[in-house]
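Hey, I'm writing a tutorial for new members on how sequence and structure tokens pair up, and I'd like a real worked example in the thread rather than a made-up one. If someone can provide the structure for the chain below, I'll link this post from the tutorial.
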Amino acid sequence: MTLIELEKQVSQLPPDQLAKFIQWVKQLDSDLWDKQIEEDAAAGRLDHLAAEAIAEDDAGRATSL
């Protein structure tokens, strides 16, 4: 199935089914994002961000949540 075919099929869904599909896509997107963050963290690709945040805190430029 092509993207154009999928778009056509989705556009023809009744409102209740479209709502379920949208929720499914949102959950899929969230799961994929979580997986990517976990992989990036495990590979050390986020270490520079943590180091920068720690340096900002050590310099007194961070605010409490």
